[in-house]
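Quick one:
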Amino acid sequence: SHLMLWKLHACLDQCHEVGQKCRAFVWGDNENQRQVHTVAWENICKPKAWGRLGLKVARNVKSALMMKMR
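Output:
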């Protein structure tokens, strides 16, 4: 239904915003200055066992939580 699509779109927008804030925090970016990003965000989100930071992607966490609720 139209309402379900609207809710999904709103949730994806929130996940995107959370992801942007996480990236800005890790990179040290602020409103006036952007730092040089020497490592790809995809690599930072890989597991600690692989020598990375093991950060979670907001959209993936949301999907996992939604699956648990079913």
